[in-house]
Design a protein that fits this description.
By secondary structure, the chain is of the alpha/beta class. It has helices at residues 10-20, 41-48, 68-76, 96-109, 126-131, 161-166, 182-192, 206-213, 226-242, 265-268, 289-312, 336-345; strands at 2-6, 25-29, 33-37, 54-60, 83-90, 114-116, 140-146, 149-158, 196-199, 218-223, 249-254, 271-275, 318-328, 331-333, 346-348, 366-368, 375-384. The model has no long low-confidence stretch (mean pLDDT 88). The structure holds S-adenosylmethionine (SAM).
Length: 385
Amino acid sequence: MFAFQLWREFKLSLWEIYQLFPKIKITYADKNVCILDTQNKNEILKAAERIGGTIKIIELIEWYRGKPEYTILDAWESHEWKFAYGLSVLGWESNLKAMLMDIKKTLKAKWLSSRFINKDFKNLSSAQIIWENLVRRASDFTLIIADDTQYFGKTIWVQDINAYSKRDYGKTRDMQVGMLPPKLSQMMINISLWDKIYDPFCGLWTILIESILMWNQEIYGSDISAENIEKTKKNINFARKEFDNSLKTSMTQVLDAKWISSSPFLKKSNTIVTEWYLGQVFHKHSISEDKIREEKKLLMDIYVKFFSGLQRANYTWVIVICFPFWEIRGKYHYFNEIYDLIQKHSKNLPILPKLDAFKHTRSGSLLYKRPDQVVGREIFKLKIR
Ligand SMILES: C[S@@+](CC[C@H](N)C(=O)[O-])C[C@H]1O[C@@H](n2cnc3c(N)ncnc32)[C@H](O)[C@@H]1O
């Protein structure tokens, strides 16, 4: 069995896991963790290369005796050097200090030299696990408290946070347009389930670049701005040279998405994964209901033509797309007008069908929002009628 530690937006993480492993039974899920009932470690590690919403993957130990100190002791016996380890608790973190002290005592009583990495008796971050090389040393342990069952295991994979920052090196980002986080792009691509990605608002090329890094062989992008298409081309070339990939075809062109039905990429791609303009960059003090109304009007004009264009072109593939929503003084304001448009032209595809405990929104979407921002993203998986 394997446990996936989930990211802050855990429902999106679960949706992605569910799509990546449709045949594996999920035996437990909460907002921290999800447990998959499989022995196939290779399949898990292969999928991990392209996963966006999982922090770390833990191989659960079958012979867990309910006492972490003994299990850690068993693991220690295969180590020659001073034993450096980490221990995290998912589900009941307040107990961590007592556990770490107990383990230390047990190891000391056996004259074993050891050191725990945990700082201030807190769970380890991905950065600490990477820095201390704990995956290779097989000594990052996690105790999971899941209802009335406890699981214990060691980390076999951790999200490479350094790789994410490497993607953001000398690239020409236009922060005014609002960057789509690479992790969210990965999740949207995984959620689409297909591999020939077309982004008709590809301006900042995050989706296309993530698609290259996920070993997809074909990517297509269009955008109204010739300047952004030039930047996209440059960055595709950059990614091709800098990162391992298997890209064979990449095509881009200038196109107003209002005229999407004329796009040659509708026939070449097998999914649209996209995010359009999220509107102005609002701050807590500059956002208001009037401004949101203006924004919506602007956006609707394009979306009406975009969706009817797709219907006219008889586009039958899956579309994963996000729309904005806004927060004013703690209250979310949704893009209600878009719901009618979606209903008119498309149908929602299911989210988390087997995990009834986690509900999607009333409109059949999942939300992504950083706590410090006032604009969030509402993510849909759609199919044109
Ligand atoms: C927020 S960016 C999109 C982010 C991008 N999907 C990514 O992966 O980073 C929005 C882009 O939409 C483009 N755009 C705006 N209006 C458009 C239209 N009518 N048709 C096509 N592209 C448009 C802008 O030029 C801009 O590059």
